[in-house]
Amino acid sequence: MITGTLPKETPYLRQLDLGERLMIGPCDGQRSIVGVRSDFRAQFDDNLEKLESGTPTPQVEVVPYELTRVGTFEEFIDSLLVRKDELVWEQDQILEFLIKYRKHLSQDEHGNDFLVKVGEEYLVVFIYVRVDGYPGAGLYPLGRNWKGLPLDRFFVLRSLVA
Hints:
- The chain has 162 residues and is mainly beta.
- It has one domain.
- 10% of the residues lie in helices and 31% in strands.
- It has helices spanning 73-78, 91-101; strands at residues 13-15, 22-24, 43-44, 60-67, 71-72, 111-118, 121-129, 135-141, 147-148, 153-159.
- Strands 1, 2, 3, 4, 6, 7, 8 and 10 form an eight-stranded mixed beta sheet that branches. Strands 5-9 form a two-stranded antiparallel sheet.
């Protein structure tokens, strides 16, 4: 997770003010996205089964960004000018965020993106909420030529300890 200052805007991202500070408490790393598969009633990508068990994490702040132009995952992540390892989420943290801050997810099938790592491979967990309110989840390789779209959101973890 990032310990320093994050840019307010990059060529691809703009930091959002959602009216409250988004915090995730310590997580023990035990929960998995596959373990709540039935909660993703719109779609559940079987590739999510690749995700490995997590490790415990401290309390962190979540910094939300909105995509401002079309780009690949690699382009908008690189635009933050930090090491990818600093942006990685544990599954338990993603689930805690979804429980606590569902109202802050981009709606109407726009993506909500969380960077994860399996072995040495970076992947993006893509969560969306359909118009009928049902959520879906997918997993994409970072290098995939999939295009993020304006109004999609990308969430970054920031350490509370400098």
